[in-house]
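Hi W., the 6-O-phosphono-beta-D-fructofuranose complex you wanted:
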Amino acid sequence: MKTKRIGILTSGGDAPGMNAAIRAVVRTALHYQIKVFGFKHGYNGLLNKTIIELNHSSVANIIQRGGTILGTARSAEFKTHKGMEKAKKTIDKYNIDALVVIGGEGTMRGAHEFSKKFNVDVAGLPGTIDNDLFGTDITIGFDTAVNNALEAVDRIRDTASSLERLFFIEVMGRCAGFIGLAVGLAGGAEDVLIPETPTDIKALAKKINNNIKKGKLSNIVIVSEGDEAGNAFTIAAKIKSIINEDYRVAVLGYIQRGGAPTANDRILASKLGYAVVLGLMKKISGCMVGEIKNKIIFTPFEKTYTRKKKIDPDIYTIIKIFAE
Ligand code: F6P
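Structure:
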């Protein structure tokens, strides 16, 4: 049977580029005479039947906007069998042939269970700043978050070098160090602490001490949230207890997630949004559409969140060498 009606939602933490992805899905679908219906606030939209038809102009002027015009949420009810039953009723009521979900790990997990248990055609797009989904080199939103964080690090560097002060800057990433590594390399950090590698507090203290002795004007340590040694405040206090050096902590938080998506995020979102519709027209579902080495790849939902995407160890090594 031909795909005639696609539903779309964004779920989990918003990521810059989600709007560009919505636009890509809508414009591609309309080109092929497929109607598109947006569900508001993630999977909750399926539960509450908050549905709007999206036409060509609904997605005008959004490619450059951060956040998501559909709103997003982390839905606890959707995780239950009853919640999914309710969602399935909405799918049937509006004759939705296939659903496109844009989000991170939790979104793909939900999509997998829902599609399997209720036999619904669902396809995913990777939308998270964390870049922690297996099945794509880069997730939509990652590049913008890295650039947002980098801008902040550059500004802090001015203060750090003027006052010759030690800074600990905490970046997002939940349990993954992708943002930390990218920001650390691009921002010339003195060290980067990420959840994927053990943090040696004594060695870090020694290194900072040596840097100060050598006359380094500023020392910036990037701390990925989720580091096993603690958050930036805890780690800073531990270092202070060893070397008694004055320091400041900056937690970048949500400024990383907002704002206009970079060109890279808009381009990735547009390519993946186009590919997901073409895939659904060929009845390819139960998977997330990503890009690996410039090729569009369809990865079964389960793999996207059960397989761990590995950090590039070379980047870690390079940061250490450059900071010697
Ligand atoms: O997954 C994106 C993310 O920004 C993570 O980096 C962060 O740990 C988390 O979301 C914060 O979630 P919330 O906005 O729900 O507090």
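The domain at 5-141+261-306 is CATH 3.40.50.450 (Rossmann fold).

W.
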